[in-house]
Write a structure and sequence with these properties.
single chain, TIM Barrel, six-stranded mixed β-sheet, 20 helices
Length: 890
């Protein structure tokens, strides 16, 4: 009987050691996280419960509950919390088509997050960005190239997105589901991909077919297969209800169909949008909004609306027990993460800070950058012959732009190498001439380049930089030369020995205006949220203050706009002094001195550089300062963080055309987060390399690829359309004529496309059954051979081609259902095996029901889509039939 009683208590979460203990049950590590969470929540007041349901959960000293902030970022490196390993932006990671690599990246991100968390706790820091609930990955479908946040995704295909996201989540959380390294939070659930300027109020009514065929499969894989412990609901409404108040999404699908037991967090302000003006206006006030969020299953409010929960309970809008359910889910996660236990009991708690930016992690970042390079065109000029080119013109707005390496939601790189400097280092024996060449678009600021700056001696590019602890007074802690003022020090110390939250920099030297007359400048402060008005700077030209930002109590100076104008009477060198101070505990840090080039000025410099060179490398594209999340951008081609056109901006096209007129060979390198219609470059450039926002080693990866030290094998995770006129309106969420799966036109470059410096051939495709019964599995094998002269990697892609007239004509033209990245030496061949499950072989009908359906199918395997005439090798295919039907679980 005694044994039976003990067993009963153990099943309930109690252990024999719990009997007679003086500590409360929630402090007992032997109990289950569920039992501990239930006990802890039962001891809280209603007001304490409400405060624990917002992302900035405060400490409860009487219960020994430390403060915790659920908001931490790890999209492609641990973000906004000091120096971390910076990987290529997510769209570049997707271009690797390397799922195991994504798993290793997730492991690195979570290891560095643990290292930072452990160090933060040792220093009694419990702040935003230093937690273990990572709000990544973004697995929304990049359905339209105009969406500014598409750079954060893994592209346009549910299968590629789902499989890459699964491996990244598994890498983040680790092998033990009961003791995760971190908690992953895939986002934004669901049907979310712009426009940014109306994201707080727009509604999407997806057809049942599109919902289940395109917008949900990757989320299902993240929850059911990868077992993510958290998920973030989106800003927009779906079928008339805000996503964070959608019973369909959060309860019917997540909780019931997918058996999700983790917690749901809102996007920041999404619950506030329930009632706020110019948003959904779904709830009459904050009390109703808070009650609705909790009752519909949104456990954490990134925002402040849940502070109204006590009043909502008192008004009878929900019961306190409803809030208890929410709180227990949140604390189960915190207990599983070991946040209430001594580090000795938690292996992850022993991860040292030295793991941050370890040599192995940095090497993986370089490997990822290498793998992300996609060669779009090559007339034979690449790889560049060593020693052939003695003078190389490196031109374009992305040749020396830090933000073009970083992308958004980025880790903070330490001493990143600009692409132009990487090319200088790689092309030994050649003279590299740099010119910015063109603005991103007319009227858009660029970093003031090193070519416009001179040291105080008048010799050498750049400025003298003095770094101070605290105010810019006395002896500096460090003195060096900075090529330009373009720095990201978000929660990071700019030089050794300084505190990250209290330092100053003084830059002095000369500014060389390219023309006399009025020039517009801009001081761009790095992302600093939340830090208030803790950033200050002054700019002096020839001893006269021309701009100041911040408030000085001593001088009574008020804040002014960071944009300012200077009228230069001539083009001689003019003395410049920039003083920047940063005093924001834990947050922000960084500054960029920018200018707005007058139309046509930079193009002339690019032509001059080309005329003096044997080769032109043009680094063009976009910037995360133009495409991104809900931005205050209104210039031709861009609006609110999104794009209104997908063409390479006219200012950059004009530069390419002017440079091409010199007759010099030209290699175009694209740095961007989304598809570009580079039609002119495709017709006229000798080669085009897509580099994305490639991370801190992106410059080296570009140089290595141009020289052939890295044989490119990346593939496009999105379709590059020839014109925005070829696709539906941006706010139309129907998938008709969108993405490679449904597009009926001829794109500039197809999804899955990418060239190599070697050649591959496919042969002997075999399938295990020419006739299947619905519900059976199909296995295909194929041989791939490197038939070219050098070693290289190939991405073998398997596409399923469903019956054209089947499923009421709703099925995609073709759909990716398998891929493998393999490395082959010259002459080497390998047999690859692909296994397609019944789910892989299924289709979705008009009611959103997924099933295996009868008919004649085929599979095609190759290095690109079947029928891609730009691909260097043809795919091989095999036909089979399916008899009968088989239902597939939602």
């Amino acid at each position: 009987m005694r044994t039976l009683l003990l067993a009963t208590f153990v099943l309930a979460g109690w252990t024999p050691a719990a009997f007679g203990q003086t500590d409360p049950a929630y402090k007992n590590p032997a109990l289950t996280p569920e039992a501990r969470a239930h006990d802890l929540v039962s001891r809280m007041t209603l007001e304490e419960k409400a405060m624990q349901s917002i992302n900035t959960a405060p400490a409860i000293p009487r219960l020994g509950v430390p403060a915790y902030d659920f908001w931490s970022e790890g999209l492609h490196g641990v973000a906004r919390s000091g120096y971390s390993t910076l990987f290529p932006q997510a769209i570049g990671m997707a271009a690797t088509w390397d799922a195991p690599l994504l798993g290793r990246i997730g492991e690195v991100v979570s290891t560095e997050a643990r290292a930072k968390y452990n160090e933060a706790v040792r220093n009694d820091v419990h702040s935003i960005y230093f937690g273990l609930t990572i709000w990544s990955p973004n697995i929304n479908i990049f359905r339209d190239p105009r969406w500014g946040r598409g750079q954060e995704t893994y592209g346009e295909d549910p299968y590629l997105t789902g499989t890459l996201g699964q491996r990244f989540i598994e890498g983040l959380q680790g092998p033990d589901p009961l003791h995760p390294r971190v908690v992953a939070t895939p986002k934004h659930f669901a049907v979310h991909s712009g426009p940014e300027n109306v994201r707080h109020k727009f509604n999407v009514d997806p057809s049942p077919h599109d919902l289940w065929d395109t917008y949900l499969p990757q989320f299902r894989r993240a929850i059911v297969d990868a077992k993510a412990d958290s998920i973030m609901c989106a800003y927009n409404a779906v079928d008339g209800k805000p996503a964070c108040a959608s019973d369909l999404l959060l309860n019917d699908i997540l909780r019931k169909d997918w058996k999700f037991t983790g917690f749901i967090t809102s996007d920041c302000g999404a619950v506030d949008d329930f009632f706020e003006k110019n948003a959904h206006q779904y709830s009459p006030d904050k009390e109703h909004a808070a009650a609705t969020g909790v009752l519909l299953g949104t456990d954490t409010n990134c925002g402040s609306t849940y502070k109204a929960l006590p009043d909502a309970v008192k008004a009878g809008l929900l019961k306190e027990s409803d809030l208890d359910r929410t709180l227990e889910r949140l604390f189960v996660a915190r207990f599983r993460l070991g946040l209430f236990d001594p580090p000795a009991k938690d292996g992850y708690g022993k991860i040292p800070f030295s793991e941050d930016r370890s040599p192995e992690h940095l090497a993986l970042s370089l490997k990822t950058a290498h793998e992300s390079m996609v060669l779009l065109k090559n007339d034979g000029i690449l790889p560049l012959a060593p020693g052939r080119y003695k003078r190389i013109a490196v031109i374009g707005p992305n040749a020396a732009s830090l933000s073009a390496l970083e992308g958004n939601y980025n880790a903070v790189p330490k001493n990143p190498q600009m692409p132009v400097e990487a090319l200088r280092a790689a092309f030994t024996g050649a003279k590299v001439i740099f010119a910015e060449g063109a603005p991103y678009a007319d009227g858009v600021p660029l970093p003031v380049p090193s070519t416009m700056l001179r040291q105080p001696t008048g010799n050498g590019a750049g400025l003298r930089a003095e770094y101070f602890a605290g105010a810019p007074e006395g002896k500096p802690a460090a003195v060096r030369t900075d090529d330009q003022i373009d720095f990201d020090w978000n929660s990071a110390s700019p030089v050794a020995g300084l505190k990250q939250d209290d330092f100053a920099v003084r830059w002095t030297g000369y500014l060389l205006p390219p023309m006399a007359g009025d020039l517009e400048f801009n001081m761009r402060l790095a992302h600093c949220y939340p830090c208030g008005d803790r950033e200050h700077f002054t700019v002096k030209i020839d001893g006269r203050e021309v701009s100041a930002y911040g408030t000085s109590a001593e001088e009574g100076r008020e804040s002014t706009t960071p944009r300012f104008h200077v009228n230069f009477a001539d083009t001689r060198p003019h003395r410049i002094e920039v003083v920047y101070t940063h005093s924001a505990p834990l947050f922000g840090g960084g500054i960029t001195l920018e200018w707005v080039p007058p139309a046509g000025v930079l193009q002339k410099e690019a032509v001059a550089a080309a005329q003096a060179s044997d080769l032109v490398v043009a680094m063009v594209g976009l910037s995360p300062e133009l495409e991104g999340e809900e931005m205050k951008i209104q210039v031709p081609g861009f609006a609110g963080g999104d794009r209104t056109d997908i063409q390479l901006p006219a200012s950059q096209v004009k530069m390419l055309q002017d440079v091409a007129a010199t007759g010099k060979p030209m290699v175009v390198v694209l740095l961007n987060g989304s598809a570009l219609a580079v039609n002119w470059a495709q017709e006229h450039a000798n080669a085009i390399l897509e580099a994305w926002y490639p991370g801190e080693f992106g410059g080296k990866a570009i140089a290595d690829t141009l020289l052939g030290r890295n044989n490119p094998a990346g593939r496009l995770p999105v379709t590059f359309y020839a014109s925005v006129d070829d696709i539906p309106a941006f706010d139309d969420y129907a998938m008709k004529n969108r993405t490679y799966r449904y597009f009926t036109g001829t794109p500039l470059y197809r999804f899955g496309y990418g060239l190599s410096y070697t050649r591959f051939a496919y042969a002997n495709l075999k399938i295990d059954h020419a006739s299947l019964s619905a519900g059976d599995t199909l296995t295909a094998t194929v041989e791939v051979k490197n038939t070219g002269p050098v070693a290289g990697e190939e991405v073998a892609q398997l596409y399923l081609v469903p019956p054209a007239a089947g499923n009421g004509g709703l099925s995609p033209h073709l759909q990716l259902e398998g891929y493998q990245r393999v490395s082959l030496k010259p002459g080497e061949s390998r047999k690859l095996t692909f296994t397609l499950s019944p789910r892989d072989l299924s289709e979705v009908d008009a009611q959103g029901v997924r099933s295996v359906q009868p008919g004649s199918y085929s599979v095609a395997v190759g290095g690109a889509q079947p029928g891609d005439k730009q691909a260097p090798a043809a795919s091989v295919s095999a036909q089979f039939t399916i008899a009968g039907t088989a239902a597939i679980a939602r």
